[in-house]
Structures are given as structure tokens and as C-alpha cells.
Design goal:
With about 180 residues, this protein is of the alpha+beta class. About 50% of the residues lie in helices and about 15% in strands. The protein has one domain. A hairpin with a 5-residue loop joins strand 3 (about 60-70) and strand 4. This is DUF922 domain-containing protein.
Length: about 180
């Protein structure tokens, strides 16, 4: 029964980019506070529409392992990755690169929020895998909304870009317990 629940959970998560994949250094970069993105990491083909988009960062929160503890409580390991082949740019200025780096940092923040939610469920000895999936889904939705808000507020606005840089840096520090 436990194995069936775990398999069901993983099948559902794989539909949302939460799957166990072989991590290939030439296609994915795991988030790391000391490794910042470089323009050479953006290997995807630029999209033609919309014409005002000059760069795009694609990140994935991926399942990297799982097991059940001795009490039957599921434990999941997840990481945030930047996808080189899906990310692209038509520019090479430092300001845009910093903007794109913050998109990656935002997804790391969401990854930490998911880890925290999972940790909270583990602390309650929660065995219902559906509740983990529910928390994951809530955080992914929130992350997408946050990404859009970031773009809408920071485009061509250095003051707002600085605000977002500080905000996300502070939130990452507040969740440093959930950094891997």
C-alpha cells in the first residue's frame, strides 16, 4: 500500500515537473548560493513572440529522492534547477542577467517553502501523500504568481528591481534552514 501511494505521488508530480530525472550537468544547474548564472548558461532558442521579451529563465523543482521512515511517514527530497536548454536570451547585459538570476532565486525560495511545508507535515507524522501533493501544488501556483508579479513590477524600474533583490534575499535567509 505504501509503495502504491508513493508511486501514485510520483506519477502525479512528474506531470508537474516534479519527477526524478537523471541530472545532467550540461542541461541543468542546481541552485547554489555561490553559483550565479552566466549568459553562456542560456542555450535555448529565443521565442519570436512576444517581441518585447529579451530573455527567459526556465526553472524546475524536481523530486530527487524519497523514502518512508520507520513510522510510515513519507520523506521527499526536492531541488530547484535552471534548465539551460529551455532558457534563452537575445541580449548580454549585466542588468538583464541579474534580473534573470532573481527568477532562479525566486524558484529556490518556492523550493524552500515546499521543503518547509513538507517538514511541517512530517512533524505531524502525516502519512497521507495527497496532502504533500496539495502543499506542493499550492506553492507552485504561488510561485508562478510571484514570478509574474516580479516581472510586472520590475520591468524597466531599477528601484523595484532593487526592492525585489532585497526582498528575495531576505526571504531566502529567513528560510535558510531549508537550504540544501
Amino acid at each position: 500500500m505504501k509503495l502504491n501511494l508513493l508511486i501514485s505521488f510520483l506519477i502525479i508530480f512528474s506531470h508537474f515537473g516534479f519527477s526524478q530525472n537523471e541530472i545532467l550537468n550540461d542541461t541543468l544547474i542546481a541552485w547554489n548560493k555561490t553559483k550565479k548564472l552566466e549568459w553562456t548558461d542560456f542555450k535555448g532558442k529565443p521565442k519570436k513572440e512576444p517581441v518585447y521579451v529579451i530573455a527567459e529563465t526556465q526553472c524546475h523543482i524536481k523530486y530527487t529522492g524519497s523514502y518512508y521512515d520507520n513510522n510510515g511517514v513519507p520523506k521527499f527530497s526536492i531541488k530547484c534547477f535552471f534548465s539551460k536548454n529551455e532558457s534563452w536570451t537575445v541580449v548580454n547585459d549585466l542588468e538583464t542577467l541579474k534580473h534573470e538570476q532573481l527568477h532562479f532565486d525566486l524558484w529556490e525560495l518556492i523550493t524552500r517553502k515546499i521543503r518547509k511545508a513538507f517538514s511541517d507535515l512530517n512533524a505531524k507524522s502525516e502519512k497521507n501523500v495527497s496532502l504533500y501533493y496539495e502543499k506542493y501544488s499550492e506553492m507552485i501556483k504561488y510561485g508562478s504568481e510571484l514570478q509574474n508579479q516580479y516581472d510586472n513590477e520590475s520591468y524597466f524600474n531599477k528601484d523595484m528591481q532593487n526592492y525585489w533583490n532585497e526582498r528575495i534575499s531576505k526571504e531566502l535567509k529567513n528560510l535558510s534552514k531549508y537550504e540544501i
